[in-house]
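tool=predict chain=A
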Amino acid sequence: MSGQALAGAHGGSLYAAAGPDRRSESRTVPSPPDHRQLPVLGWKEHVTLPEWGLQLRGKLDTGARSSALHVTSLEEIGEHHDGEAGPLPIVRFDVVLGHRDAPRHHEIESVVVGHKVVKDTGARAERRPVVRTRIVCGPLDTVADITLTDRTGMIFRMLLGRLTLEDHCLVDPANGYLATVAGSAAATAPTP
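tool=predict ok
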């Protein structure tokens, strides 16, 4: 029975491991969240990044692992000294919201917590800086990592990927704006 999963009486999984040199042991693996209790969000919703004072339309993209934000004028401006992690770069970038004929520029500064190689929609690998901030989208309220990239030509300036969404909500691929109000002028990203 080595390595086989057994259904636990309380929804968890039990794994039995036995080998010629080991005693038999069992451990309980926590059950995934009860999906019937998770809120359902649409495939597109309004997203707020409160620490940066931003509200924009976002695509809840279960095909993307990482969340991403369209930025321009990305530059490293200094270092943040954290006793545990050592010096971390600080970047400044511009987030452009509003309509093409009346863009609103928002200059943001944030600490880079790492870098991630991400494949874009054309399967080209790109090394992106990763920042961490609070994300609110209807009932979803979490702190998550966001990669910074140039999404010129894309309809949505922000993607919420699986790592941000998992264990927090379900996504309805047939409907948008289930948790937020459609057509909010403050949250409209420019059309490409």
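The two ends are 57 Å apart (CA to CA). The longest strand covers residues 102-119.
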